[in-house]
What does this fold into?
Amino acid sequence: MATIARSQTLANRSRMTLSSAAGWYVVLGIASVVTIFPFFWLVTTALKGPNDAVFSFPPQWIPYEPTLHNFTRVWQQITVWRFFLNSLFVATCTVILNVTVSALAAYPLAKMRFPGRELIFYSLLATLIVPLELTYVPGYILAVRVFRYDDTLWSLIFPNVFSAFNIFLLRQAFQAVPNDLIDAARIDGASELRIWAQIVLPTVRPSLATAAVFTGVTSWNALLWPSLMLRTREIYTLPVGLNTLRGMFSADFRLIAAGTIIAIIPILIGFIFAQRYFVSGLSGAVKG
Amino acid sequence: MKARIWSRVTPYLFLAPALIFMSVFTLYPLVAVGYYSFTEYDILRPPTPVGFANYQHLLNDNVFWLSLRNSFVYLIVTPTIIILSIALAIALNRKLPGISFFRTLYYIPVITGSVAIGIAWQFLFNGSGGPINGLLIWLGVIEKPIVFLTEPDFILPIAMLMTIWMGVGYYMVIFLAALQNISEDLYDAALIDGCNRWQKHWHVSIPGIRPAIVFVAVISSLSALKVFDEIYILTNATGGVLNSGSTIVFYLWKQAFRLQNVGYASAIAMVLLIITLSFSIINVRLLEQRDD
Amino acid sequence: MRRIFALPLAIISLISLTLSACGSSTPQTAQPQIVTQIVRETQIVEVEKTVEVVVTPTPGPHPEAVISGVEEGAEITFWTFYLSPTFDQYIKDTIARFNEAYPGVKVRWEDRQATLQEEYRNSLAAGNAPDVVNIPTDWVLEFAQKGQLLNMSEALPPEVQKQYFEGLFNQVNVGGASYQVPWYQAVDGYLVNKQLLTQAGLTIDDLPKTFDEQKEFCARVKAATGIPCGLRLNTGNLLQSMAYEGNVTIMDANGRFVFDSPEAVSWLQYYVDMIKDETTARDILLLNSSDDRIGLERFSAGQMPFYVTGPQLIRLVRESNPGLYGYLAMVPRAVGRSGKLPPVSMSIVVSKNTKYPRAAAALAVFFTNPRSMLEFSKLVQIFPSTPASYDDPFFTQPPVAIEDQIRPIARDIIARQSNILPEIPRLNEVNEIVRQAIEAAIFGGVPAEQALKDAVTQANTLIGK
It folds into this structure.
């Protein structure tokens, strides 16, 4: 009975796939159009010549005199590539520092016993509640008066090294590492640091990737804090630079569009190559 | 002997970097904001204590209550995103040729960043000939273009639309991974029981990804409460006509860094803290209930 | 020169004296005898010769170096507003000239754009503010009231202060003292799209000369072509628009705000009506001043009959829509009910905590002296704040290009520009209150009288009256 039903459902399934494949493509196609449309509009605007109307009724979809002139003008006047490099530097440093510090902190919480463990654990939990935005005002004063690193890229990195979220994420991952491995290494006389680096970390790579992806994307897209800290144009990160670009060229939308395209192309290229890590990284969040 | 001391100290050494950064960048600011909220401070000159004046002013401040309201209204984004991304994840959870292309495509808005998208949004909704106006006029819905970004009623929905559009790809990936964890047997059992396509999803898929739904709900709602970027970009940092787009974090920023009222902004920050605290408690309670 | 010869001369004369004294000692005998002796004698022979001598005269005062006590080896930072890249050469040349007058001062120049106000504020808070900053005069009050600027009335000698139009130097005094030096002035006028006028069946002469005529004009254009005007309020200081356009008294003699008077209500109602009738564009009215180029873009796209702006921005229109350039005209703008026009002015200020106050003041004064101003005016249609510049034939020639049509009458306009506003405390916050009242009346349907009354109450509470 069960096997007959089984084969029937299998047959049903393959029939469904064939006939409704077209239907699914339509649905996905519509979703794609919705997703791509804003970018499409940016691209056409960026390619419009001086006589193509940017805003008009009815809207002009295709430029009559397509030109790359807008791109060259923006490229010459504002160093978008430098913004990109700055963002890259900040994101990379933040990820490395953050993940390292979090992984270090997560290890004793997961695999060691010591007095005060509960206290520290609950304190960390409590900090999850403190919204980041609350720390901006005193953080600003700290940056400007105490550490004096305002207007440098370090002001974007250091405040983001501590992340209770990542610590908990990694702690969960560490807890899944079998104790036998660790105990064996301890008996062999390995130091805790060695155990951490050579045994535990490699085992939890997916979670490390997750933490890295979350932290990296957050750092890359940050706008509020960097715009408070950075004043010299040369060290602007991409979001701040784009915002400035918008103000610089507010008299001509073609230039704004061109600048935006220049800014996001490297990300798109990088993403297409690295998408595997993004996707697997995020799915690690759920499994963990 | 040395080894014993060392092993005693080791846990604390591991924790030290994190705890140091935590104290400097999270605990100290918390205390500082509490202190500043009882002062009047413009950064350029030393703070002057004013007792509860800031909080009293908050109670009477229309813009503050409006911002609070807007932040809560913004929560509508969360269920919307969840539904859309689950639907999309279900659509993508099948073996069609080229399916991974679509998956990549939908993720693109997530990585291009809020500034680029905000700029694109301003283009789209432009009141003197943007494509949205063009579309609506062509469809006959309206006769004259609407200057969307100056209509008080439209600013928040447009910002929310932007948030949804940016977030769907991000959460879709999470749901997709969760869906792929559900074993086929469950689906087969459902089919045998006589479920059609839609019921199968309702009875198997959704319950199967419940942990992911909870996770996404928590993250999404907390960031909806704290929304800033969309408002900043769409309203050119003004908060919109009649402050219709102002949210808690935006108002905080404006008071602190536009009007130089750090004391008042700190009071707003304390309110934000109470809100996130309550939300976290509610979330934890819900989690506990669900797991029963 | 003589000193060098003095000592050897003395020695030589001493030696010759000694020698001559020694040379003439002979043993005592009865009869003098003439004995031939060889005597060494040094003879000084005076010879007149023409010699080429290099003379370096002590440097007299450079005509443009008017500030004394400039610190040696000073390094100062100078920020300008939206002047790069177009005026790079001018700024660099002027700095070079500055260094001729004040050698030994190093100037680091950076240009800032839309984010200048925030950046200056941030840098003041950080304690590393630039020494000299070019800011719109509207912003001076904010920084001066917070004690962040150098008092120019005290720091500059009276002769230097006199080089400016008095009305301009004292435009935004705080406590009776000036904290800025006026730099270039713009004369705002109507930038007109003649093509649109013709389309509406109107001519240049039909353009409004007064505030009230403006409302009718916009209604006519709208009725004929369906295109609204693009009027813009001064969002940075809305009370200024109110005062000049509506002839409204902002504060009474006791320092209380009184901008809920019938004149004020009438002024606000003017705009409420125009927005309701759609005779002016909704999104342009309260455009941030840093975004005012958005309005310019709309004008360039032919979406309004005129735009209030300065001739110096016509070049942007030309870049954006070259086809329109031939149809442009520049005429004086409509005068408000007060009968006066607000100054559109750029200033230079010095941060109070600068390490080199004398050098910074010197730079500020140098850039705003008559010669620098004249040279700047020759590059672009801005006007000097120094009366002496106008004596140059450049200003008395008849104009050719559209951009120059205002030039001959500019001096008069600028000489008459003065401030009719009182010193407003906590300007930023009061402005915010006023803005909300205006938005409530225009977009929120609140009656104008109510909105203004609430605003006055709030503002007075804020300043403690």
